[in-house]
Design goal:
Elements (H helix, E strand, L loop, with lengths): L1 H51 L11 E2 L20 E7 L4 E6 L5 H12 L5 E6 L2 E9 L3 E8 L1 H74 L9 H29 L7 E4 H18 L3 E6 L4 E4 L1 H18 L5 E9 L2 E9 L5 H4 L11 H6 L6 H11 L3 E7 L3 E9 L4
Parallel strand pairs: 8-10
Antiparallel strand pairs: 1-3, 2-3, 2-6, 4-5, 5-6, 7-9, 10-11, 11-13, 12-13
């Protein structure tokens, strides 16, 4: 539920941000188009006005006095082809039409309506609408009245209207597409957060479970001691030993948890130096050699000399110890352990193989999770908490390396560690 709300918040923020940006982009395009179109309209009004203002003797144009007894105004065809329908009207001070200049023939009523619409706005330039058509006008006073120039801008206004409809359509389609894309990426963004939260929740549950058992044992044995307070310490040695054993187990668990926490917190500040991985691995093998032989386990190792890495020698020794200790624990009776350390391209490759039951494929990707164990009963038998491999992975990650495992059920398991090689 919490993650659904977080996802929805991310989705809303993303949609609002993109919508605002898209609105600003569309508004900018519209305003630029609108501004350019207005400039074009006013420029055309000036040209039309200059054209109709030519002297009466000019051969390509003449003005016509109004005969109010006729319903139409005779127009003189002009060779000049205007981009849109236009006309010029001269009026007296009372707005009575004196003459009309145009290359088209129209009803006188149209010109009267145009004079009424323009004069009512009390502006030098502007727009008005007549019978569904858009007109731009320029009104200038003359010595005997006014001169009105009008240009049909219906097509231009239609372009602006179509531009708005186009923007709305494109915006609607884009918002639908962006919604699904945003939802996809919101889910992807939430996924690692949810996984981390689930792991943290599982970690707390597992840690509590692991602490609960030794605490219960300690509590029970303490009650036994208190119930027999008159007995000697020697007679109560068995209960005291149980308490000490579980205390040691809790101490180890707590130390491992603290170590993992310190590893996560100190990755950036850890001081690393060049060291010999060959020497580090060999020293751990020598330490474990006696224990391996006591368990009648075969040991074969091949260590390439002078392999150097950059990092912390003691931590790499700890990784080798964890892997070798696991190999010893889970090797079958009279089985064997094979260890190789060699150079592979620009990396150092360590492999530790033990014969035994192996690890099922569904467990291989999770064995490095904290408290994860493929068989809890066997892990309890060997005193494990499922933190060893998690510590090993944390160390290798800090050294910018890789650790992984491969296994064949009923045959063997191999753990691989790759570290960047430092050339000598």
């Amino acid at each position: 539920m919490v993650f659904n709300k977080l996802r929805n918040r991310l989705l809303v923020v993303n949609m609002v941000t993109i919508s605002v940006m898209m609105l600003m982009a569309f508004a900018s395009i519209y305003m630029i188009t609108y501004s350019e179109m207005r400039k074009d309209i006013w420029a055309e009004l000036d040209k039309v006005g200059q054209f109709y203002d030519k002297p009466p003797g000019y051969q390509d144009h003449e003005k016509h006095e109004i005969d109010h007894s006729k319903e139409t105004v005779p127009m003189h065809p002009d060779p000049m082809q205007e981009r849109s329908f236009s006309f010029a009207i001269r009026t007296d001070k009372q707005w009575n039409i004196l003459s009309v200049s145009s290359i088209f023939e129209e009803d006188l009523e149209l010109y009267k309506l145009a004079v009424d619409a323009a004069s009512s706005q009390n502006k030098d330039t502007g727009l008005f609408k007549l019978d569904g058509y858009e007109w731009a006008f320029s009104l200038k006073p003359t010595f005997d009245g006014y001169r009105l120039v009008c240009v049909d801008v219906t097509a231009r206004q239609g372009i602006l209207t179509n531009l708005i409809y186009t923007f709305l359509f494109v915006a609607s389609v884009m918002l639908v597409v962006i919604f699904f894309i945003s939802r996809y990426f919101a889910n992807r963004s939430i996924k690692p957060v949810k996984e981390a939260f689930d792991k943290q929740k599982q970690f707390v549950a597992d840690a509590s479970h692991e602490l609960k058992t030794p605490l219960a044992i300690i509590g029970t044995n303490t009650d036994v001691l208190l119930a027999n307070s008159e007995d000697t310490i020697q007679s109560q040695a068995k209960w005291i030993h149980y308490i000490k054993s579980e205390t040691e187990r809790m101490t180890k668990l707590t130390n491992d948890l603290l170590y993992l926490t310190e590893m996560d917190a100190s990755r950036a500040s850890m001081i690393h130096t060049a060291f010999s991985v060959s020497d580090a691995v060999e020293s751990v093998i020598l330490t474990m050699e006696a224990i391996i032989f006591e368990k009648h386990i075969g040991l074969n190792y091949e260590i390439e000399n002078d392999l150097t890495a950059f990092g912390n020698s003691e931590q790499i020794k700890q990784v080798v110890m964890i892997l070798l200790d696991n190999a010893v624990k889970y090797t079958n009776l009279k089985g064997s352990i094979d260890i190789t350390l060699r150079k592979q391209h620009n990396e150092i490759l360590l492999s530790i193989t033990n014969t035994g039951e192996g690890i099922a494929p569904e467990h291989l990707e999770r064995i490095f999770d904290r408290f994860y164990r493929t068989d809890k009963s066997r892990a309890r038998k060997y005193g494990g908490y499922g933190l060893g491999l998690a510590i090993a992975k944390s160390i290798i990650d800090q050294h910018k390396g890789k650790i992984y495992a491969k296994s064949a059920i009923g045959e063997k398991t191999t753990f691989y560690v790759q570290l960047p090689l430092v050339s000598g």
